[in-house]
Amino acid sequence: MHPHLSHLGSDLCRGVLEYAEGRPxxxxxxxxxxxxxxxxxxxxxxxxxxxxx
Length: 53
Prior knowledge:
The protein is mainly α. It has a domain at 22-52. It has two helices and no strands. It has helices at residues 11-15, 26-52. The chain is flat, with a radius of gyration of 15 Å. The model has no long low-confidence stretch (mean pLDDT 80).
């Protein structure tokens, strides 16, 4: 595996990894995915509002 592409790396690096055996998210996984997305949206919105001020 390339040293810059690791499951321990940044979100971008982890997002492009493809696992041999995919599994469905399930209810808990979907909930955590939504929490992660909303958290990232809030951080981006705060950053945008700070720059717009």
